[in-house]
Design a protein that fits this description.
The structure holds two protein chains of two kinds.
Chain A: E1 5-7, H1 16-41, E2 57-62, H2 74-77, E3 84-88, E4 95-100, E5 108-110, H3 117-134, E6 138-141, E7 145-148, H4 153-163, E8 181-186, H5 192-205, E9 208-215, H6 217-221, E10 228-231, E11 238-241, H7 248-269, E12 272-277, H8 282-294, E13 302-303
Parallel strand pairs in A: 4-6, 4-8, 8-9, 9-12, 12-13
Antiparallel strand pairs in A: 1-5, 2-3, 6-7, 10-11
Helix pairs in contact in A: 1-3, 1-4, 3-4, 3-8, 5-7
Chain B: E1 6-8, H1 20-29, E2 35-38, H2 42-48, H3 60-77, E3 80-82, E4 95-99, H4 109-126, E5 130-134, H5 148-157, H6 167-178, E6 185-189, H7 198-201, E7 212-217, E8 225-231, E9 236-241, E10 250-257, E11 263-271, E12 277-282, H8 286-290, E13 294-297, E14 306-308, E15 316-322, H9 328-331, H10 339-345, E16 349-352, H11 359-368, E17 373-377, H12 384-395, E18 399-403, H13 406-410, E19 422-428, E20 439-440, E21 460-461, E22 463-467, H14 473-476, E23 477-480, E24 486-493, E25 496-501, H15 516-528, E26 543-545, E27 547-551, E28 557-558, E29 567-569, E30 584-587, E31 592-595, E32 616-620, E33 627-628, H16 630-651, H17 664-692, H18 695-700, H19 705-710, H20 712-716, H21 727-735, E34 740-742, H22 747-767, E35 776-778, E36 790-794, H23 804-815, E37 819-823, H24 827-832, H25 840-850, E38 857-859, E39 886-888, E40 910-913, H26 917-921, H27 938-957, H28 960-964, H29 967-975
Parallel strand pairs in B: 4-5, 4-6, 6-7, 7-32, 15-16, 15-17, 17-18, 18-25, 34-35, 34-36, 36-37, 37-40
Antiparallel strand pairs in B: 1-3, 3-33, 8-9, 9-12, 10-11, 10-13, 13-14, 19-22, 20-21, 23-24, 24-25, 26-29, 27-28, 27-30, 30-31, 38-39
Helix pairs in contact in B: 1-3, 3-16, 4-5, 10-15, 11-12, 16-17
Classes of the chains: A alpha/beta, B alpha/beta.
Chain lengths: 304, 976
């Protein structure tokens, strides 16, 4: 009998050339899928609904002493006795950092999931890049690409990802400025202390983080039984369970406890925490993250 | 060897059993391989699974299973044999193996062969030279000494033969051969049946220096032979014999087969306790019995159980003599007095006809041909010498049947060859001047030969000759009329019979000769008669008959081998079965002589063990009961292996249902596939183990495939298909009426012919009740023409002239009632040409008709039935108009004013036109006309079609249509 889960083709190896080729083959597909996802959610993604720097008309308001005369809208003012200023909607771009877990544990797909975790993470990341670029946001990828604004943000990010090598396991957050957002896409299977420490530093930087946990159903359900040898794809550590089904309940408790810890931390800081299963569509996570980023409504975690 | 009857072929392998504890330890130590799974959240799982798993142990029963498996394999490799066979002849003195390979050995030949093979193997182990000989072999066959390989080859070359053994010759040769090497041991594998020279057969061995003899006694209880077959009056009597020392009651089934091997009758024979003979009757009609070719004991596969029947047992010869004029038989057969008799007798008797009407010559001639029955129809007075010959012949067993008639009725009363005294003159019943009525038959007397025949109700007798009343008249009456007067009387004279039918053999006196009862009565009388003919008794000079079909040792029929020589028959000596003349059919297909193994006085006496100067040890053909256990052990190991695999799969959790339903189906299917794959070799080994078990099984289950393929049981079931190629085409041709045309070879002409007949076919279907099938093209040289009422022949001067055979065939077709419509299609050319000139097509037509019997022709007269058979037709146009349609001239017929149609019998066998009918009829696929008429007139085409219909109706109804024209007048007369 074939194993329930398997390590998928090494999309992330240390071999730079192989990695580049695989990425190159991978990226166009992802872009297509990302564009499709974007067009489904593009409605409702409006401006900032505040006056400020921008190009689009927002409102006319009475001139207040002290304002520059050049801002007076003479055409409107000529219609009656008051003097009006033409306000534009604030369209200052926001910087959103994107990060995908590059660790080997992402290269996993079980029979219960439809795609590997890495695939799903890349899809979500690039889809978000497309989404954000279209709405004029600046996107960046720690250690790969600095903040930039372009209509073809997803393509540029993808090509940057192809050419990047040796991405660290955890994002380098030194360059991240306050008031920017960061979207962390990972399975968060690192020791929970490490993750919490990262989040702590992000909070100190004044960054708002959105966590998207990609999880394979097999990891959550633990459908193993019989004599089973488990192997860690990152460390190659092996554990043999005589009757695996005996441990399912305890394991599930621990696994969910880890998720609860992270979710509780995010909730406390007003961040969002989204879970996406690889047997569910990626757009579910996208929509949820999109909602969380748009509506400034505090914590909007959820499982998708 | 030890307490258990168990021996090992390779006992050293048993040392492998020492390895079992090591295997046990290894099995205990090796856990089953775990299922390997990649699992990213291993750290979390590690928190749960604190303690490291020690390798789990296999369950004890699985260890035991695997140990048993290993032990079975080791045991199997050691080649164990159950009941090992003891060595019979040890020592290196020569071994002489003598086999009886006569007919009595055929049934258990395998047993003898295997015993001899074992003896050879033993002798090979001891290094002794070997003699091998068969007692039914040619006397110059090589007998040894051989080494074991050659001896086995010799043994394979020996086969049972369908002939008796010749022990005298065989042991003389053996004694001569082994004198050179004294101390030889003789193993005599005999068949247990005594032959004539057995008393002296073993004497030569006394001086041969032989040291001992092993006397193998077979079990002859199941031997049975057919000693004789007699064709009785109503049944075939079969006599069977069996060895005289067989005491148990036994019943055998005997089947009768025809010359194609079909089983057509059977009976059963019972040997009583202590009786060595049995008798059975195959009751079957004489016609069926005449078809018997072989009689065979079922389930017996030796030559004596098959009895071959030749013509001697079959048909009777019947001589027919008539007093009527000789030419009456040929000119008016229905009036010939012998006609009904010969028709009645032909199915089951050979008829002899006199060559001259002179009784003084013809009667001795006929009697020389040894008839069983002589039928004399209405002969009143015989020449003196002929009467004497006939009387002698009757007293020797001949059956004389006489019929009354005007001549007998008028003859004097000094005729000795009559069963009763006749009154002169005949009695007439139901005439104009008589009060009496024609008399029906009374029921047949129960003591006569016709007893049991149903009384015919439809038979009446108008005239008869009467017997003078006498005290024994009642006994002599075999059939009576309703008023009690005898119709058939019969009398036994010495070994023969004289029978008189008191009526004439034709239908003038009575309608009995044309009834089925007459056939039945004659058949019974003929069956009662003795068979006086035959090659054996005629004492003529000896003839040499070539072998025709031989009896094989297993009782089946085979073609003669090159060794078979012609059989000399006659010359006073009875032919005997020998090596050169094995039993079988000799002669040609028409006159077969059956040479049988057993005679009517044969006995199967058991062979007595002789007492010789050296010890003779009796032993039985003990079947080799040793069983090789190697195969079954391997099979058991394979089963255990399959079981183990299933258990491993089960322990691995592969048969348990899972929550994730998606991949489960495929996985389960894969597991089941694995199970099936594993069970397959197990089953194969199981089924193969009897084969691996060796000869022990071959002894008990005797029929080997090769033999059973020839055995009668299987050949019975063969279905004989009498169909021949071309049958289907004939059935197709006659099931629907088809229009037909002659293929000239010119495609344009043939296409028009076909399209034309197609158009006519459609027209016929639309307008008339006739629905012909597709037109058929014919090659007169090749095809059978007789299925088609009308054949259209477009005469093409450019086509090849049909061969003479083809023309003869067409001529025969025309003579037998077919009609050919010749169409020269050249009316235009003929009309345009000069007067009297003949067109090429016309010349060709003349050439064709030159080879045929063409009747006188005339153009269709206006009152010919052709012009009125469906439509009223003034003329018969085709594409052209003008050429007359020629038909056979109605001779001797005058046209009369008051008759609308000329009467005449038959249908004209030939029609000739030049109007190109087919061109006018021709239509394409959609039914539109292909060719224009000349001139282009639609009515002319309609007339052409109508002409075709008229011709077709004329073909199919003949002159019936000419009578039809009177129907209105007849109706009118009936109405008034």
């Amino acid at each position: 009998m074939a194993a329930l889960g398997q390590r998928v083709e090494p999309v992330a190896t240390t071999d730079a050339l192989a990695r580049a080729r695989q990425r190159a083959a991978l990226v166009p597909d992802l872009l297509v899928e990302a564009r499709r996802v974007v067009s489904t959610v593009i409605t409702g993604w409006h401006g900032r609904r505040r006056r400020g720097m921008g190009e689009n008309f927002w409102q006319f308001r009475p001139y207040v002493e002290g304002e520059a005369l050049s801002r007076i809208d003479w055409r409107r003012s000529a219609r009656d006795d008051h003097t009006y200023v033409r306000d534009r909607e604030w369209e200052a771009a926001h910087t959103v950092w994107l990060w995908t877990d590059p660790s080997a544990s992402m290269l996993y797909q079980s029979n219960l999931g439809e795609v590997s975790k890495e695939w799903r993470a890349l899809v979500i990341t690039l889809a978000l890049a497309e989404l954000l670029s279209r709405s004029g946001e600046r996107i960046a990828y720690p250690g790969v690409i600095d903040p930039f604004a372009a209509r073809n943000g997803a393509e540029r990010l993808a090509s940057a990802l192809v050419h990047s090598a040796g991405v660290p396991a955890l994002p380098d957050i030194a360059n991240i400025r306050r008031f920017s957002d960061i979207i962390l896409v990972s399975d968060f299977l690192q020791p929970v202390e490490e993750v919490l420490e990262l989040l702590e530093r992000l909070a100190k930087h004044g960054v708002r983080a959105h966590l998207i946990e990609i999880t394979d159903p097999a990891e959550e359900v633990f459908p193993y039984s019989g004599r089973t040898e488990f192997r860690d794809p990152e460390t190659d550590e092996r554990i043999t369970a005589g009757r695996a089904e005996l441990f399912a309940q305890d394991y599930r408790k621990l696994y969910l406890a880890r998720r609860e810890t992270l979710a509780a931390y995010c909730k406390r800081l007003g961040w969002s925490f989204t879970v996406n299963h690889t047997d569910r569509p990626a757009s579910e996570a996208l929509v949820r993250v999109h909602m969380n980023m748009t509506a400034d409504m505090g914590y909007q975690g959820g499982v998708a | 060897m030890n307490a258990l009857p168990l021996a090992f072929g390779a006992p050293m392998v048993l040392a492998g059993l020492i390895a079992l504890p090591i295997i046990w330890w290894l099995l205990r130590m090796t856990p089953p391989r775990p299922q390997e799974e990649v699992f990213p959240p291993l750290r979390i799982l590690a928190n749960v699974l604190k303690k490291e798993e020690t390798p789990s142990k296999s369950p004890w029963w699985m260890t035991l299973l695997r140990l048993a498996l290993a032990a079975l394999v080791i045991l199997a490799l050691a080649e164990p044999v159950w009941n090992p066979r003891p060595v019979t002849l040890a020592g290196d003195q020569p071994v002489a193996i003598v086999l009886d390979n006569g007919w009595a050995s055929a049934e258990d030949w395998d047993q003898k062969h295997d015993t001899a093979e074992r003896l050879i193997n033993d002798a090979e182990a001891a290094g002794a030279p070997i003699y091998v000989m068969g007692t039914a072999e040619r006397t110059n066959a090589e007998i040894g000494p051989f080494d074991a390989t050659r001896a086995l080859e010799r043994l394979e070359a020996l086969n049972p033969r369908p002939i008796p053994v010749d022990r005298q010759q065989a042991f003389e040769r053996l004694a001569t051969a082994i004198t050179a090497t004294p101390g030889a041991r003789i193993a005599y594998l005999n068949d247990g049946v005594e032959t004539a020279d057995d008393a002296t057969a073993f004497a030569p061995l006394a001086q041969s220096g032989a040291s001992s003899m092993l006397w193998y006694r077979p079990d002859t209880a199941n031997l049975a032979g057919l000693a004789s077959v007699e064709n009785g009056a109503d049944a075939l009597v079969v006599h069977a014999i069996r060895p005289t020392d067989a005491n148990q009651p036994r019943s055998v089934t005997v089947g009768a087969f025809d010359n194609k091997g079909r089983r057509i009758a059977e009976t059963s024979l019972a040997f009583g306790p202590g009786s060595s003979t049995a008798e059975g009757r195959i009751e079957a009609p004489i016609e069926l019995r005449n078809d018997f070719s072989t009689i065979r004991v079922d389930g017996s596969r030796q030559a004596a159980a098959t009895r071959l029947l030749d013509d001697n047992a079959k048909r009777r010869r019947v001589a027919l003599i008539s007093g009527a004029e000789a030419d009456a038989a040929t000119a008016q057969p229905l009036l010939s007095p012998l006609y009904y008799i010969s028709r009645a007798l032909q199915p089951f008797a050979d008829l002899l006809q006199p060559r001259t009407a002179d009784l003084a010559i013809s009667i001795p001639e006929l009697l020389d041909q040894k008839p069983s029955v002589v039928v004399m129809a209405d002969i009143g007075k015989l020449p003196e010498a002929a009467e004497q010959r006939l009387a002698d012949w009757v007293s020797k067993g001949g059956t004389l049947i006489r019929f009354a008639g005007p001549r007998l009725a008028g003859a004097g009363d000094d005729d000795t060859l009559l069963p009763v005294t006749l009154r002169r003159g005949e009695r007439s019943l139901g005439g104009t001047l008589s009060w009496t009525e024609p008399q029906p038959l009374a029921a047949f007397p129960a003591n006569g030969p016709f007893a049991g025949l149903p009384t015919p109700q439809e038979v009446s007798v108008k005239r008869q000759v009467l017997a003078d009343p006498s005290p024994d008249l009642f006994e002599k009456s075999w059939a009576n009329l309703a008023d009690g007067t005898p119709l058939v009387t019969g009398e036994t004279r010495d070994r023969g019979r004289v029978v008189l039918f008191h009526i004439a053999p034709d239908a003038t006196w009575s309608n009995l000769p044309i009834s089925g009862t007459f056939v039945e009565m004659l058949r019974r009388i003929v069956v009662l008669s003795r068979n006086l003919g035959g090659t054996e008794e005629n004492g003529t000079a000896s003839v040499s008959l070539p072998p025709y079909l031989m009896l094989a040792a297993d009782g089946s029929m085979i073609p003669p081998t090159p060794e078979t020589k012609p059989l000399t028959v006659g010359g006073g000596a009875t032919p005997e079965v020998s090596y050169d003349n094995p039993p079988g059919f000799y002669g040609s297909e028409d006159a077969l002589y059956a040479l049988n193994l057993l005679g009517p006085r044969s006995e199967l006496t058991p062979l007595v063990q002789p007492s010789l100067s050296f010890p003779v040890t009796a032993t039985a053909y003990a079947a080799d009961e040793s069983i090789r256990l190697r195969g079954p052990l391997f099979a058991a190991a394979a089963i255990l292996l399959a079981l183990d695999t299933l258990l491993v799969l089960w322990l691995g959790g592969h048969f348990r249902p899972r929550r994730g339903s998606r991949p489960q189906g495929g996985r389960k299917a894969a597991a089941m596939g694995a199970v099936v794959l594993l069970l397959l070799p197990g089953g194969w080994l199981l089924s193969a183990s009897p084969l691996a078990g060796g000869q022990a099984f071959a002894q008990t289950s005797s029929p080997t495939p090769a033999q059973s393929a020839q055995s009668p049981e299987t050949s019975d079931n063969t279905i004989h298909d009498d169909s021949r190629p071309g049958d289907q085409a004939m059935i197709d041709a006659v099931s629907v009426t088809h229009l037909a045309y002659i293929i000239t070879g010119d495609k344009a002409v043939d296409d028009i012919s076909r399209a034309g007949l197609q158009g006519l076919t459609q027209f016929l279907i639309e307008k008339t009740a006739l629905e012909p099938g597709e037109p058929i093209g014919l090659d007169p040289a090749r095809d059978d023409l007789s299925f088609y009422p009308l054949i259209y022949w477009p005469v093409d001067p450019n086509a090849a002239m049909p061969s003479e055979a083809a023309i003869a065939k067409v001529d025969a077709y025309m003579q037998q009632g077919g009609t050919v419509l010749f169409d020269t299609r050249d009316e235009m050319a003929a009309g345009a040409g000069l007067d009297g000139a003949t067109t090429p097509a016309g010349q060709r037509l003349r050439a064709i008709l030159d080879g045929m019997n063409v009747p006188p022709l005339e153009p269709v007269p206006s009152d010919h039935v052709l012009s009125k058979s469906f439509y009223i037709m003034p003329d018969f146009p085709g594409r052209f108009r003008g050429s007359p349609l020629w038909v056979e001239a109605s001779l001797n017929s005058e046209s009369r004013e008051d008759r609308p149609v000329r009467t005449g019998d038959g249908v004209s066998p030939i029609l000739i036109t030049a109007n190109d009918f087919a061109g006018a009829w021709a239509v394409d696929q959609r039914g539109a006309p292909l060719l224009p008429t000349v001139p282009n007139d639609p009515m002319q085409r309609a007339y052409a079609m109508r002409g075709g219909v008229n011709i077709m109706m004329y073909m199919l109804t003949g002159n019936y249509k000419s009578d039809q024209v009177h129907v209105p007048v007849l109706l009118e007369r009936l109405g008034n």
